[in-house]
Design a protein that fits this description.
By secondary structure, the protein is mostly helical. The protein has helices at residues 21-32, 51-58, 99-117, 122-134, 138-151, 156-167, 173-186, 191-203, 207-220, 225-238, 241-257, 261-272; strands spanning 65-68, 71-74.
C-alpha cells in the first residue's frame, strides 16, 4: 500500500498545504463515497402492547424488568440528550488556504449545513469535519467526530480521523493510539491503520507495542509489503539480530515476489550489514 496514511476518508491534516479548488472537489467526492447505515437493531413483535403492560412498564424503575410473551423487558437509563455541533459561523480563512479555495470550501460548507438542516446525516457530518480540518479548525473537527461517536454506532473512519487529529495537530499520542486501535477493531484488514498505530507507539518510545502493531498488521494483511519492511527495520534498530534477520528474509521474499527488485536488493544489503 505504499507510504500513504490511513485510507478511505482519512487524510492527515497537514498545516501548511495550500489547497486548490480542483483538489477540493475530488476530496468531497471521495468523502461522499462513504454512507452510513444505522446499525441499531429493532425488534418488531407485530402486536400492540396491552394497556396493562403499558401500565406495568411505566412503573418500572431503572434496572427492573418484566416478562411478557416470552420476552424480558428491562427499563434502561434514558439516553442523555446530545446537542449537535454548531454549523455557524464558517471558520475563518487561514493563511495557508488561497482565497479561491476558501470561497469553494465555504460554499460547500454552507451546502452541507443545509443538508443537515433537513435531518441528521452521518456522511454530511464527516464532510463538515473535513472542512474544519481544511480550514485548520482542528477543535471543530474533533467536536464533530466526537459527536458522531455518541450519536451513531461509528464506522472505522471516525476513529481513524480522530487518531489523525491526535497524532498531528492536537498532539495527544496516547489518545491517537487508542483511536487507531478502535478503528482496527472495525476494519482489521486495513494495513494503513497498523502503520499509523506503529508510528504513534514509536513516537512514544513504546517499542513492544510498536512491534506488536506491525506483527498484528502482517497477520491480518499479509499482502502489505511495507509492513514487512517496517518490521525488519524496526527490529534492526530495537530488537535482536536474529529476529531482524528473519524479518528481513521475509521482507526480501515478499519484495521479490512482487517484482520489486530494487527494494529486494536494498533490503538484502541492509540484512547483510547486520552484526
Amino acid at each position: 500500500m505504499g507510504n500513504e496514511r490511513v485510507c478511505g476518508t482519512i487524510s492527515p491534516m497537514t498545516k501548511n498545504v495550500r489547497l486548490s479548488v480542483g483538489a477540493l472537489a475530488l476530496v468531497v467526492v471521495l468523502l461522499g463515497a462513504y454512507w452510513f447505515f444505522d446499525s441499531r437493531s429493532k425488534i418488531e413483535t407485530g402486536a400492540e402492547p396491552t394497556d396493562s403492560l403499558e401500565e406495568e412498564l411505566s412503573g418500572l424503575a431503572v434496572g427492573e424488568s418484566v416478562n411478557d410473551g416470552g420476552y424480558t423487558i428491562e427499563r434502561l437509563p434514558d439516553a442523555p440528550a446530545v446537542s449537535a455541533p454548531s454549523l455557524e459561523p464558517i471558520p475563518p480563512k487561514p493563511a495557508s488556504v488561497s482565497d479561491a479555495a476558501y470561497q469553494q470550501i465555504s460554499k460547500n460548507f454552507a451546502a452541507t449545513a443545509a443538508v443537515l438542516a433537513e435531518g441528521d446525516n452521518f456522511n454530511a457530518w464527516m464532510n463538515i469535519a473535513a472542512y474544519h480540518g481544511m480550514l485548520e479548525n482542528y477543535r471543530g473537527a474533533e467536536e464533530v467526530l466526537q459527536y458522531l461517536l455518541v450519536v451513531y454506532s461509528p464506522e472505522w473512519q471516525v476513529h481513524a480521523n480522530l487518531g489523525n487529529l491526535y497524532a498531528g495537530p492536537l498532539l495527544n499520542l496516547p489518545e491517537a493510539a487508542e483511536q487507531y486501535r478502535l478503528a482496527i477493531g472495525k476494519f482489521a484488514t486495513n494495513a494503513a491503520l497498523y502503520r499509523a498505530l506503529f508510528e504513534v507507539e514509536s513516537r512514544q518510545g513504546n517499542t513492544v507495542e510498536a512491534t506488536k502493531a506491525l506483527r498484528d498488521g502482517i497477520a491480518q494483511a499479509p499482502e502489505s509489503l511495507d509492513l514487512y519492511v517496517l518490521l525488519a527495520r524496526n527490529l534492526r534498530d530495537t530488537g535482536s539480530v536474529s529476529d531482524a534477520r528473519d524479518a528481513y528474509d521475509q521482507a526480501i521474499e515478499r519484495a521479490a515476489a512482487a517484482g520489486n527488485t530494487e527494494l529486494s536488493s536494498s533490503l538484502t544489503a541492509e540484512r547483510d550489514q547486520l552484526q
